[in-house]
Design brief:
Family: Belongs to the acetyltransferase family. RimI subfamily.
Number of strands: 7
Protein name: [Ribosomal protein bS18]-alanine N-acetyltransferase
Pfam family, one: Acetyltransf_1
Structural class: alpha+beta
Function: Acetylates the N-terminal alanine of ribosomal protein bS18.
Largest sheet: 7 strands, mixed
Number of helices: 4
Subcellular location: Cytoplasm
Distance between the termini: 41 Å
Strand order of the largest sheet: 1-2-3-4-5-7-6
Shape: globular
Order of helices and strands: EHHEEEHEHEE
Helix content: 25-40%
Length: 150
């Protein structure tokens, strides 16, 4: 069973290493350290059998949240890590009274697109050339957390 908890400073080196192993333009140790200080960021860590398996970064502006990064370690992919992280982020966002969560995902990342759709995210559009190395469009997706007020 996958458990999700808030990241701690003891996770810092693992976060940076995992990021570097999985992304062509990785975030730095300093970036993660600032995120762990709190403020408008929450970093969640997924544990599979007690072992760190993935992480998610959630940021906030006013009453809106953004999933800035989701990463499952290579050997834990296809085991529910991403789904557990996204579910935990949505639960946290609802508890904080956020109205929506938004994210961008590479247009070619079919597994991630399927995961986000399964979690209730809707496609809103594209950001042409959003990603680098390689250059690729991003699909913009949003999960609405509150009913529209009339």
């Amino acid at each position: 069973m996958i458990e999700v908890r808030r990241a701690e400073m003891a996770d810092l080196n693992w976060l940076e290493k995992t990021e570097r192993e999985n992304f062509s333009l990785p975030w730095t140790l300093d970036m993660f350290a600032r995120m762990l200080e709190g403020g408008s960021y929450s970093v969640l860590v997924a544990l599979d059998g007690g072992e760190r398996a993935g992480f998610l970064v959630l940021s906030r502006v006013l009453d809106e949240g953004a999933v800035d990064n989701v990463c499952a370690s290579a050997r834990f992919r296809r085991r529910g890590v991403g789904g557990a992280l996204v579910s935990a982020a949505a639960e946290l966002a609802r508890a904080e009274g956020l109205s929506l969560l938004t994210l961008e995902v590479r247009e070619s990342n079919a597994p991630a697109l399927a995961l986000y759709k399964k979690q209730g995210f809707e496609i809103l559009g594209k950001r042409p050339g959003y990603y680098e190395q390689p250059r690729e469009d991003a699909v913009i997706m949003t999960l609405y957390l509150k009913e529209a007020q009339s």
